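User: quick one
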Amino acid sequence: MSIIDTLLNDFFWRALIGGLGVALIAGPLGCFVVWRRMAYFGDTLAHSALLGIALSFLISVPLHLGVIITSVILAMALMLFSRNKTLATDTLLGILAHSALAIGLVALSFMPSVRIDLTGLLFGDLLAMTRNDLLWIYGGAVLILSLLTVLWRGLLMSTIHEELARVEGIPVERLRLLLMLMFAIVIAVAMKMVGVLLITALLIIPAATARRLANTPEQMAALAVLFGFIAVAGGLSLSWHLDTPAGPSVVVTAFATFLVVYGSAGQLSARPSA
Amino acid sequence: MSEVLVAIEDLTVRFGDRLVVDRVNLSLHRGDIITIIGPNGAGKTTLIKTILGIQVPTSGRIMRAQNLAIGYVPQHLSLETTLPLSVKRFMLLSGQSLAECESALARTGVSHLLKASVHHLSGGEQQRLLLARALVRKPDLLVLDEPAQGVDINGQAALYDLIRQLRDELNCGVIMISHDLHLVMAATDKVICLNQHVCCSGYPADISHDPAFIETFGRPVADSLAVYHHHHNHSHDLHGNVVGSGTSHSATGHEECSHEHH
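Assistant: Done. Structure below.
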């Protein structure tokens, strides 16, 4: 107990434990972002987090909850908008991503009483990880991993072929909503770790790295978790020793891993990966 | 009369102002093979999506037999290459046992691909995999959207032949979209020519003489099919007799179109 206590009292260990928790859920969810081409969508949700923070201050709810609610509302708005196809999806996402970010910044500037570290929110803050954050991260991780386990086949099937899945009776729309909810949670809990501007990187890069070595969807998800762990541990060490910002350091480590894996795997096998 | 699997009445689908499917009536019995033909944008895919239950009709009625198991063969499997997936895994995602998946693959002639990645299949192999995926669910109704797309000319005839054999083995109904007019004309019980509304429908042999068909596809196509049919009528009739699935053949073969044609 005392060891755990010591660990949790140390901000470095808190950040590491929190970061590993985030990587645990970012791995499998990141795979879905890659498989379903939702990178830009994830980015849009992440950008809305700032608006969520402003909102949580306004109606005094916990930050994480405010961010989750805002992301879910935005996700649903996006789903509705994209149904009537007057604007291309990427245009729509571009509009909403940056508008959400800008509105969030403007809203926060209207609250001079709120002392907030904007750089920390945008790029992550190692020091900011509290015990409360750890609770949110691991609570979210338990929820998301349970949901993923139960819904795995349906999610996979609706990713592979949405219409085939529907014909086979899989509730595609409901699963899409649940996936949005899971994205919203991961954004809310990862926000302090890497910052809203870099969250998508934490979702995509480990998953993309894993693709090079995986032969099944499950292997890819597991490897994505592993590469996420490497990115978090490596990034935090880098930050600790060189005094670099934590969020960007994690992303830089993830990118370096990506380059190494793609470089070496390319030499090992000339065949295209299965 | 065999069991009615699907019946649609006055089915209409609009996308905004655009009328995509216009008051279509259709009924499909167990053992029937109905092929929908028609120009691009005629609403063929929308019509079968309504039958599949993935497109909500704007108006009209659609009735499906109780507990109808549908096997759907989509146009293609446009899968992101980022998703690693083997043929075996794709089959198992149907929720059926490995033995059943293997026997479905064997039936469509692609059991050797069990370990292969779905990303490395040829057009023909992919269609046979999708067909196996539909079969493994033991469908009462098989719905195929251009099953021979991306299949070479020899493979096409073999594929249509396989679909007909499967209809006999499973005693299911088949509804498919096709552009391969010659093959369709030879392999189908009933053809529906769709151009938003049903232009004409009936036995393959009759339909190529239909003025509405000629108007839709042009005289050269109709003539070439008519010649083709003259040649093949016997084998078609003979086949019908041998198989003995011709119950629906006694029905009115040819419904004249009630719409005006411009």
